[in-house]
Amino acid sequence: MKSILLCSFALLAPVLANPPTSTPIPGEKSALSTFAMPPTRIVWSSDKGVENAENLLKPNIGQAALKSPIEPAVLSGGEGSIVLDFGTEISGYLELITPMIKDKTPPKARIRFGESVAETMVDVGERGAQNDHALRDQIVELPWLGKKMVGPSGFRFVRIDAVDPEHPVHLAEVRAMLQIRDVPYLGSFKSSDERLNDIWKTGAWTVHLNMQDYLWDGIKRDRLVWLGDMHPEVSIIGSVFGHNEVVPDSLDMIRDITPPTEWMNGISSYSMWWIIIHEDWYKMHGNLAYLAEQKAYLQKLLPRLATFIDESGSEKLDGMRLLDWPTFENKKAVHEGLQAMMVMTMASGARIMDLLDDPGTAQVCRDAEARLRKHIPEPSGRKSPAALTALAGLRDVKEVAEVLKAGGPKDLSTFYGYYVIRALGEAGETAAALDIISQYWGGMLDFGATTFWEDFDLAWTENAARIDEIVPEGKKDLHGDFGAHCYVGFRHSFCHGWAGGPTAFMSHYVLGITPAAPGFEKVRITPNLGDLEWAEGTYPTPKGVIHVRHEKQADGSIKSSIKLPEGVEQVDP
Predict the structure, then answer these.
(1) Which of 148, 272, 353, 546 has a CB 3.0–4.6 Å from the CB of 345, allowing a cystine?
(2) Residue 358: which domain range?
(3) pLDDT tens readout for residues 261-279
(4) Do 445 and 479 reside in the same domain of the chain?
(5) Rounded to two decimals, what is the model's pTM?
């Protein structure tokens, strides 16, 4: 042993004498940062087998130590269980720190992550509970005097059970380890309505959590890049964070794994959303070189899309025909929405190919758009496709607004609800849009949400319990008892990026900030306060942050204070 040590020191001597200024570390550096979060409360514990649980809420050292500064919590084997609340939904891991005890046998603990308290209390297979994409229910062995990381997953609540009757679980500390892109919130929104302010922030947080290695749609389930789902997310990222590489990285990744002869994610509308996102991203950031990188792909995708139009001008797209899940089985609604999407895509494609100096493909798009506009689908009566027809200019936006306002928050989805409120904004019906936002998205906050969900229906809340409490006898379980399609019961994602649309809406339609030239060299500011007394906020651009404050005057007019960064010109509405 002595000779080995001497040999080692001899090898290290040159390095120790001349230490390098930086040591190369193999591998690629992650864009994610990690933050430790202690639990905020004990939601529930078993009647027997739990000692010193309250000590898990006390500040600790975050390190295994020969002597714990705080008496460890103990869960007796086979009967001790506890549910912890970390205060907000996060994406990341659970870290368990164990003390020094006499028995070195690794005890077994069952860990169940939950986006609701109820989700922590069920087995895999029960009412939709699953381990898809991320293991939310598993048994792990804990080290003696060490740390154990469990995950990753998306969660707010964690249940810990000691499963081995012969070996209790001793816990010096339990922490959630948040993994997130540590990027500043450059955009902001405040108004005279605190509920709307909370909704803006919740939408931003929902999308921020999904800005992982790529731009995901969910942090528990759907830890994947879905192109249609990205469109609201990209709008929110532009409003809150400005440029972030997670967007082009995700767009490029799906492009590179999807031949233009196939649909992205197997869904025809998602290839169209890819095109629309690229134009939106160019408007936000003005990076023509990046847009030009898409030219070869667009030269194949756009003409292919143009072949899915019949002689009457009606779209005939194949693949999975999806707008949002609530309209999925309504063929009339799906056709209505896809017709509008084809119109928007061909208009966008023509503008992009003009920029990329390809008049031939641009003309293919214009011809296709002209044919499509000859066919106006019969209205299905559903709000999602109606909103798209208004945004595409197939139907009068004022006329459609009456359909969208009917019933307020009824017939919405958290995904296409974004286009419903956008269409209302285009019709000048901001007050109606904000009322829907307050009722619908605010309805999730009323029941304990800290992020917005994959889907939601206000009717679910009748006689339902909050998601941050044990479901009382006689109450409905808002998580386990509802859902449909791919999100039945506990498979339902409670942090879904497509659901944050109100954040982008309030920045664009209430603060009124939109680019009037690529990269915000010019900006158009047309506020609409609805019933608000005032609103203020910031919006990131490549040239700096725009600051605005709008105040409603006694005569109903709006007085605005606007501060623009150098190089940004304001133009008339």
Answers:
(1) 272
(2) 264-395
(3) 999 999 999 999 999 999 9
(4) yes
(5) 0.95
